[in-house]
Amino acid sequence: MSRPKGTPKTGGRKAGTPNKVTQDAREWLTQLVEGNREQIERDLQSLDPKDRLQVLEKFMQYTIPKLQAVEATVHDDGPVYDYSKLTDDELLTLYRLLPKVQSDGGLNELYSTSSTVLK
Q1: Which stretches does DSSP call E strand in 58-117?
Q2: What pLDDT is recorded for position 82?
Q3: 107 burial level (CB within 10 Å; 0-12, 13-18, 19+)
Q4: Which residue in 68, 50, 52 sits closest to 60, CA to CA?
Q5: Do residues 56 and 89 make contact, with C-beta atoms less than 8 angstroms apart?
Q6: What is the SS3 assignment for 36?
Q7: How far apart are CA 32 and CA 113, in angstroms?
Q8: Among 18, 47, 94, 95, which lies 20 to 30 A Cα-Cα from 57?
Q9: What does the alpha-carbon distance between residue 76 and residue 111 come to, in Å, rounded to a whole number?
Q10: Which of 89-98 are b and which e, b meaning 16 or more Cβ less than 10 Å from the residue's Cβ?
């Protein structure tokens, strides 16, 4: 007989806990790689440069996290600008103003400069 709808699930693994097979497989692979590191390095050196880079790229996806695009919108009761459309020189101008704005504690100069730069 199944449990009625709305009744909380009881028993089983807690969320985020890997199952025993997954955990054992990861430990085995880790030991395998650690025990054969020198052979793996020799094998990599024997590959053509193009093939070597492809293998290293595949390894990296397991050690270096992939970065995601980030979009930020700044709201501070002032005008909202799309800074993604600025040139490098315009961004550099605004960047140089930030320490002054932070020391003054106000954003008026930044907004007036942004308005000028964004026109």
Answers
A1: none
A2: 76
A3: middle
A4: 52
A5: no
A6: coil
A7: 59
A8: 18
A9: 10
A10: ebeeebeebe
Match 């954003």 to its residue by tokens.
107
Residue pointed to by tokens 């089983």: 12
Tokens 């605004």 found at? 94
CA-to-CA distance for 88 and 94, rounded, in angstroms? 10
pTM, entire model: 0.41
30-40 tens-digit pLDDT: 899 899 999 99
Q: What average pLDDT values come out for the chain (119 residues) when binned by 10 residues?
A: 78 76 88 92 94 90 79 66 82 81 60 54
| Cβ neighbours for 59, distance < 8 A, ≥ 6 positions apart | none
User: Could you tell me the sign of the dihedral formed by the alpha carbons of 43, 49, 51, 53, in that order?
Assistant: positive
- DSSP count for the chain of H helices, then E strands: 5, 0
